[in-house]
Design brief:
The protein is α/β, with parallel strands linked by helices and 303 residues long. The chain contains 15 helices and seven strands. Helix content is 45%, strand content 14%. The longest helix has 16 residues. Bound molecules: flavin mononucleotide.
């Protein structure tokens, strides 16, 4: 999740456990090949990928996600991330951001199945046959009329997996997610379909899996709302109690980061608390206590 789920958060949440795969925040591809340095910044897990594979410290594979509109440049960058050791390449056709859509990237591509096909095909041809090419879509841009056609185009072009966020672009993040559409898509293609959208607790996952013929599940916001959601959904552990969440928050502020640590953590902790407060009342209270604090140290004192 762009601006939210970076490599530090991936490290932290996969250390807690329950996740089989992480996808990076999207890397925007326009009309050039991105530098190694930029890929390493988005995905530091690539740095020692030749030794460990691209994995978080606790061993969960990490896949780089690309977002772009030109088949040639998507292909060249896909080839590069695979060469750098990424655990496959994921293509983002779901981003609703205005700036991205205006420059014909993300969800706007869902209006044109042939364009999707061209991008996925170019990427497929550019990477070794054993490299996983996955794609992420929404159900459409304005409406769902092309949902099946888009999924079929992605399969026909040679993708190995498809994640479906069960809403259109204009539905934004407004509940509900239309899980039954994931089933329709699943019945129309033969590659694995991964269900996404509004899975915040075990009951949601069970219902979604029932509706979608036992699809695997991808979580976004829920992973930040309940830090051990992966374990909860696999029924490996109960929901993490607040004192453990608080300890995790404190641990988070001690991790090494890039750039200015003094700005990074105050912003990120406040952002994380906004997700946490959807489940933990204590997070709301804590947010009130630290809202005005500007340094990591001051926040650590409260924690
Ligand atoms: C702040 C934010 C950033 C996101 N960034 C990305 C991204 O970079 N790549 C992506 O595939 N999806 C991104 N998403 C979408 C989520 O991955 C997910 O599809 C969506 O939130 C629905 O799933 P959820 O209900 O489990 O959150 C983002 C969502 C949010 C709220």
């Amino acid at each position: 999740m762009e601006g939210v789920l970076d490599h530090l958060m991936r490290d932290l949440l996969t250390q807690v456990g329950g996740y089989d795969l992480c996808v990076t925040e999207f890397v925007r591809v326009v009309d050039q090949v991105i530098s190694d340095k930029a890929f390493y910044r988005s995905c530091p897990e690539l740095i020692d990928a030749d030794v460990y594979g691209s994995r978080t410290k606790s061993g969960t594979p990490v896949r780089v996600q690309l977002l772009g509109q030109y088949p040639q440049y998507m292909a060249e960058n896909a080839a590069k991330v695979i060469e750098l050791g990424s655990s496959g390449v994921d293509l983002n056709f779901g981003c609703p951001a205005k700036t991205v859509n205006k420059s014909r990237g993300g969800a706007i591509l869902l209006k044109d199945p042939d364009n999707l096909y061209q991008i996925v095909k170019a990427v497929r041809n550019a990477v070794p046959s054993e490299a996983i090419v996955s794609a992420k879509i929404r159900l459409g841009y304005e409406d769902k009329s092309l949902a099946i056609e888009n999924a079929q185009a992605i399969e026909l072009a040679g993708a190995n997996e498809l994640t479906v966020h069960a809403r259109t672009k204009i539905e934004g993040y407004k509940p509900p997610a239309h899980w039954h559409w994931i089933t329709k898509i699943k019945q129309s293609i033969n590659i694995p379909v991964i269900a996404n959208g509004d899975i915040f607790q075990l009951e949601d996952a069970n219902k979604c899996r029932e509706i979608t013929m036992f699809s695997d599940i991808m979580v976004g916001r829920g992973a930040l709302t309940i830090p051990n959601l992966g374990q909860v959904l696999k029924q490996e552990a109960p929901i993490m109690p607040w004192p453990e969440v608080q300890a995790l928050l404190l641990h988070y502020t001690t991790c090494e980061t890039y750039g200015d640590k003094s700005k990074y953590y105050p912003n990120r902790i406040k952002q994380w608390l906004k997700y946490l407060k959807n489940h933990y009342q204590e997070a709301d209270d804590l947010f009130g206590d630290i809202r005005a604090l500007k340094t990591t140290e001051a926040i650590q004192d409260i924690l």
